Amino acid sequence: MSPIKYVAIYGKGGIGKSCTASNIAAACAEYGHKVLMVGCDPKSDSTMTLVGRRIPTMMDLIQRGGEITERDLIFPGYKGVWCVEVGGPEPGVGCAGRGIIVAIDFLRKVSKAMEEVDLVLYDVPGDIVCGGFSAPIRKGLVSQAYIITSGEYMPMYAGNNICRGLKRLGTPLAGVICNSREAAGEREIVESFAKELGSTLVAFIPKDPLVQQCERRGVTAIEGASESSIAGVYRDLARAVMAGANPVIPKPMTDERLRELSCA
Ligand code: ADP
Ligand code: MG
Fold this sequence. Notes:
13 helices
């Protein structure tokens, strides 16, 4: 048995973390891997396309009190993907990072899922300055990170900032994923971005209306558009994630260098 992979998906809000993570999870499950998807974003929407509906969050259950078992927290999704949603504080109250730590500690107390699967995928909040960014890393619960970006300046800026955090915490970056916004020269820009960080571009995901059509039906593209080319792209990415790519401690750039690179 290969060691369990603990993989976190990082990137600016709205760039496609939840969507990409759930498609990776679905594809890995189709390949016969046991996957635990841990939605850490307070939006609690990471697992919707895997389960087909919004599931109760751990924070809600913990706050409600009473006895809580594994069955109350972990919901089976597409092809047996195990799904949990941490949930989060109301805006302006409390800290998402603290919530993630409490929730994951609780999960490990009532369930062996974190130790029994082949892949644990964390979908983390997009906001780098929030404690939610580092919470799973600080707990030693992330072995590799991926960054999702497009070829636009803002998501690359966020990605570079995330690399500053990864470097500080000694967490390897396994690769950069480009989720295309059809920016000019996008593939080359994101390839250069990855290379400059000491990493590689592991996937170029085209912008495809099928993704949102499936999302609206409550399914991943893997499930809802199984034969499509976009599903093929997600399957290739899932295989790369399971293969472990080439994890490196990233070398973040200066803001000036990033600006040069994004305007090239
Ligand atoms: P995040 O989790 O980073 O905030 P989401 O995964 O929720 O972002 O994605 C934001 C929106 O973009 C969603 O409606 C999603 O369906 C859409 N989206 C993501 N990737 C693609 C893609 N490759 N093509 C088309 N739409 C996409
Ligand atoms: Mg999300």
